[in-house]
Amino acid sequence: MIHAALNGQIELFTSEALLLELGDVLPRRKFARRVAASGLAVAELVGRYALLAQSTTPAAIGRVSADPDDDHVLACALAANADLVVSGDS
What we know:
Elements: H1 2-6, E1 13-14, H2 16-25, H3 32-38, H4 42-52, E2 54-55, H5 68-79
Parallel strand pairs: 1-2
């Protein structure tokens, strides 16, 4: 996705809440190899993503998911009028 965004094939959208969440989850053990392979600190990765993605003011949607963090993703997608939502959730 990052390469597609850099090549102008897709647009990425984020919000302040999603950037904070990204900074919270990237240090987790399951991402350790990928973060290490980047050669960057978590803060640098988040900062670079913030520069690449367009920041939105999330739509007011109320609680629609069992996981409040998922509501942040949906609110951002609605505000961006997104065609697709990509998440690590299953």
